[in-house]
Amino acid sequence: MKNLDTTLYFVTDSTVVPEELFLPSVEAACKGGVSMIQLREKKSSTREYLQLAEKVHAITKRFQIPLIIDDRVDVALAIDAEGVHVGQSDMPVAIARKLMGPDKIVGATTKTVPQALEAYQAGADYLGVGAIYPTTTKVVTILTSVDTLKEIVKAVPIHVNAIGGLNKENIQVLQGTGISGICAVSAIQKAADPEVAARELKAAFLAL
Ligand code: TZP
Ligand code: MG
């Protein structure tokens, strides 16, 4: 198992903040103690994704926080990011692993135990599991139950993070699940002060 700290994994959404506030929000989240960052750009062109990734990487490197690129192995490799994250309709984990090499981080989204086992066997270092709660960040048709989350944690010997609608007021439900950490978009990205939001969310998770 790779030595990762997935305690508070900030997944970005540049579309919900004014452009000039996006990079400052990434830096603020780093200061607030996020342990990993995923750049998640769904609407950018390849060129825009690359350019933004370079800028975000310059920040995360200063804080020695791993930067994971969502969906795009090519962008991750091009900027020498620490890893890539793939979903069920993206590049399969085994191919992402082959392209990224053994030392980079490969993460996968899984919603069921069979998907989790498959991703683990194909070489994933961590899993994102959800959505646990309704979310405005992604179109989610079926929520993932806390019981399924627990089963996935038991089924695979890699880091499992919960995701979806999580904030400091509602993560109590994750107590006793055995997860390594939580992923959050809105709770940090939409906060008036992302640094404070990250710090408080991390403290709330660590207090579980
Ligand atoms: N995958 C499952 S839910 C989700 C993703 C990417 C979005 C989570 O965003 P938020 O704003 O923390 O609910
Ligand atoms: Mg994806």
UniProtKB/TrEMBL annotation:
Required cofactor(s): Mg(2+)
A Gene Ontology molecular function term of the record: magnesium ion binding
UniProt keyword annotations, A-Z: Magnesium, Metal-binding, Thiamine biosynthesis, Transferase
Cofactor comment: Binds 1 Mg(2+) ion per subunit.
Binding site for 2-[(2R,5Z)-2-carboxy-4-methylthiazol-5(2H)-ylidene]ethyl phosphate: 135-137, 165, 185-186
Record-listed E.C. numbers: 2.5.1.3
Biological process terms in GO annotation: thiamine biosynthetic process; thiamine diphosphate biosynthetic process
Keyword set includes rRNA-binding: no
Domain of life: Bacteria
Protein residues bound to Mg(2+): 71, 90
Record protein name field: Thiamine-phosphate synthase
Lineage summary: Bacteria, Pseudomonadati, Fibrobacterota, Fibrobacteria, Fibrobacterales
Reactions catalysed according to its record: 2-[(2R,5Z)-2-carboxy-4-methylthiazol-5(2H)-ylidene]ethyl phosphate + 4-amino-2-methyl-5-(diphosphooxymethyl)pyrimidine + 2 H(+) = thiamine phosphate + CO2 + diphosphate; 4-methyl-5-(2-phosphooxyethyl)-thiazole + 4-amino-2-methyl-5-(diphosphooxymethyl)pyrimidine + H(+) = thiamine phosphate + diphosphate; 2-(2-carboxy-4-methylthiazol-5-yl)ethyl phosphate + 4-amino-2-methyl-5-(diphosphooxymethyl)pyrimidine + 2 H(+) = thiamine phosphate + CO2 + diphosphate
Domain Thiamine phosphate synthase/TenI, residue spans: 8-188
Binding sites annotated in the UniProt record for 4-amino-2-methyl-5-(diphosphooxymethyl)pyrimidine: 38-42, 70, 109, 138
Broadest EC class assigned to this enzyme: transferase
Family the entry assigns: Belongs to the thiamine-phosphate synthase family.
GO cellular component terms, semicolon-separated: cytoplasm
Origin species: Hallerella succinigenes
Physiological role: Condenses 4-methyl-5-(beta-hydroxyethyl)thiazole monophosphate (THZ-P) and 2-methyl-4-amino-5-hydroxymethyl pyrimidine pyrophosphate (HMP-PP) to form thiamine monophosphate (TMP).
UniProt pathway annotation: Cofactor biosynthesis; thiamine diphosphate biosynthesis; thiamine phosphate from 4-amino-2-methyl-5-diphosphomethylpyrimidine and 4-methyl-5-(2-phosphoethyl)-thiazole: step 1/1
InterPro entries in the cross-refs: Aldolase_TIM, ThiamineP_synth_sf, ThiamineP_synth_TenI, TMP_synthase
